[in-house]
Structures are given as structure tokens and as C-alpha cells.
Write a structure and sequence with these properties.
two-stranded antiparallel sheet, 167 residues, mainly alpha, 69% helix, single chain, 8% strand
């Protein structure tokens, strides 16, 4: 890799690592391992690469690799004649993340539907006073957004599960 691309990759490892650390509630080193593995792709990352590139001890890398495997976030493959393990992202982790997003959006949608129904009931009771009526446009637009986002991410999930592309 050229020096420029290597610096760019390491900058992204850090940026993505911070994001993953927050989102997945992972230790900083585990998040960096995961982000490095994501950015290395299907060729896989070796234990030795991670020790050298992430500047962490063998013990630390080993502990976090084992933890990430236990969480089913990464997996490994081996190559014939090579004793090294090549770590890659577990595609199921991405599908699980998509499922979590869809479930969260479904809950939020249901909550907005309930709020909207409540506000409609209140609006019917205030038939003469327009100033007291709730504006339902936000809820309508937000529900529409959630429906469209869910439909879009369901397409992505289908492509992931039908192996239409690799991560």
C-alpha cells in the first residue's frame, strides 16, 4: 500500500473505531480491531498484522479477538499450507445490525402512530378552537420517512442474506 493510502486507512480505522466503540459498546482496542478488519476486507487480517498496525500487545489483541469471535462479530479462515488465521467480518453481524435498526424503527413508528391517534382524538374535542389543535404533519411525515427507510433497508438485508454481494 502506498503511504498515502495507508495513512488514509489508519485515519478511517480510528474514525470508524470511535463510531463502533460507541454504537456497539466495545472497548477501544476491540473497536479498532473490528474497524481494521472491515477496512481490510475479504483478504482478511492476520493476528500479526493487527499487533503491528494497531500498536497493541499480543495479549491485548488476542483477548479482544477472542471477545469479538465470542460476540460473532468476526470469524476467520485459513489458507492451505499457511498456519495463520485470516480474520474477516461475520456477515451475520451486519444482518443483525440491520434487524436491530428495523426493530427500533418499528417501535418508533408504533409510538408515533399512538401519539398521532391521541392528538387526533384531542383535535376532535377542540372542534371550534383551531389554535388549540395539534398539527399532525410532523407525525405523518416521520411515519412516512420510517416506512421508506424500512423498505430501503429491507432491500439491503435481502441482498445480504441472498449473497448478492460480499462485505
Amino acid at each position: 500500500m502506498t503511504d498515502k493510502i495507508c495513512k488514509e486507512k489508519m485515519s478511517l480505522v480510528e474514525k470508524l473505531g470511535v463510531h463502533i466503540e460507541k454504537r456497539e459498546q466495545l472497548a477501544p482496542v476491540a473497536a479498532r480491531i473490528l474497524s481494521y478488519t472491515i477496512l481490510t476486507g475479504k483478504k482478511g487480517s492476520t493476528f500479526e498484522d493487527m499487533v503491528n498496525i494497531l500498536c497493541a500487545s499480543k495479549s491485548t489483541i488476542s483477548t479482544h479477538l477472542n471477545h469479538l469471535q465470542d460476540l460473532n462479530k468476526i470469524e476467520y479462515f485459513t489458507k492451505t499450507g499457511d498456519r495463520k488465521k485470516y480474520f474477516i467480518i461475520n456477515k451475520d453481524m451486519v444482518v443483525h445490525h440491520v434487524d436491530n435498526l428495523m426493530n427500533e424503527w418499528k417501535e418508533v413508528r408504533e409510538l408515533h402512530e399512538e401519539i398521532k391517534t391521541y392528538k387526533e382524538t384531542i383535535n376532535l374535542q377542540n372542534d371550534g378552537d383551531y389554535a388549540e389543535k395539534f398539527d399532525l404533519n410532523f407525525h405523518n411525515d416521520y411515519i412516512k420517512f420510517l416506512d421508506e427507510a424500512t423498505a430501503s433497508i429491507e432491500i439491503l438485508r435481502t441482498k445480504l442474506t441472498d449473497a448478492k454481494f460480499e462485505i
